[in-house]
Amino acid sequence: MAYKEKEIEKLYYSIGEVAEIFNVAPSLIRFWESEFDLIKPKKNRKGNRQFTREDIENVRTIYHLVKEKGFTLQGAKEMLKHDAQAVKDKVELIDSLRGVRKFLVDLRDNLR
User: Fold this and answer.
1) d(Cα 71, Cα 28) in Å, to the nearest integer?
2) 15-111: what fold?
3) Which of 5, 43, 79, 98 is the most buried (most CB within 10 A)?
4) Beta carbons of 65 and 87 less than 8 angstroms apart
C-alpha cells in the first residue's frame, strides 16, 4: 500500500538558518531585529532566538526593501509604517513571479 508522506515543516528556525536563507550574517538579522518592530522571534530558555515562518516572511520583507530595493533603514521603516501590508503583498508577488520564472526556465531547459 503506497502512501505519500506528509512533508514535515519546522515550527522554529534558528538565527543561523534564517541568515543562511538570505545569505547574510546572523549579526545582520540581530541588528534588523533591534531596528524593526516587525521582527520579534521567540526566545527559548537559553535565550536562543526561534523564528517562525511569519518571522521569516517579515525578514524577507525587510531584506527586499534594504538589500534589493536599496532603501536606507529609515526609508524602509517609513515604507513599513505607511503600508506594511502593501509592501508584504508586493514581496509575496515578486517571490511568486520568481517561482513561475524558474519553473518556465527549467521547463524550457528540459525541452531542449
Assistant:
1) 15
2) Multidrug-efflux Transporter Regulator; Chain: A; Domain 2 (1.10.1660)
3) 79
4) yes
How far apart are alpha carbons 100 and 10 in whole angstroms?
Answer: 25
Please check whether residue 22 is in contact with residue 55, taking contact to mean a CB–CB distance below 8 angstroms: no
Say which residue the cell 533603514 belongs to. Answer: 73
- Quote the Cα angle for 37-43-48, to 5°: 115
- Global pTM value: 0.74
pLDDT in tens, the chain (112 residues): 455 555 567 889 999 999 999 999 999 999 999 999 889 999 999 999 999 999 999 999 999 999 998 999 999 998 888 877 777 778 788 888 888 888 888 888 888 8
